[in-house]
Amino acid sequence: MKEDIREVLINEEQLKNKVMKLGKQISKDYEGESLTVICILKGAVMFMTELIKNIEIPIEIDFMDVSSYGNQTTSSGVVKIIKDLDSSIEGKNILIVEDIIDSGLTLNYLMKILKSRSPKSVEICSLLDKPEGRNVDMEVKYVGFIVPDAFLVGYGLDFAEKYRNLPYIGILKEEIYLS
């Protein structure tokens, strides 16, 4: 797998430090409150598990599986909910944890759905933000890293379900996803 990576963009130490800072900021912002963390499967699992270790307030976790990519390198724009939440979010503080925001189409759709369920608040925490790829305006409260418009893998991010287990974020060589 490592030979398929053109460049390591964010190393393990950088990831660890940023996730710790995000957890501390979230803890401070929600001090005295509880929080429901919604992990967007599958890409955000590694990020979410490390993030919640650094959140020092009461939390619940839940999962959603939402797809707009399939095995493509760009969003189709058609969002499909594969797995919905297990519990009600009415009256709760919600933090959506995402691996990367690219076009913003998936999260924009997801925000509308979740807000219609009457939570107390809904915010987004994304490890990566790729503003060059944005198709919709979005407010993201917590962002780990601003990244270039490249195809990224590792630390949960995949191409055709591969590379998720890399401990860093890397840029995938073009010949891998163009072939």
TrEMBL record:
EC number: 2.4.2.8
Localization annotation: Cytoplasm
Cofactors: Mg(2+)
Superkingdom of the source species: Bacteria
InterPro entries in alphabetical order: HGPRT, Hxn_phspho_trans, PRTase-like, PRTase_dom
Keyword Nucleotide-binding found: yes
NCBIfam families: HGPRTase
Official protein name in the record: Hypoxanthine phosphoribosyltransferase
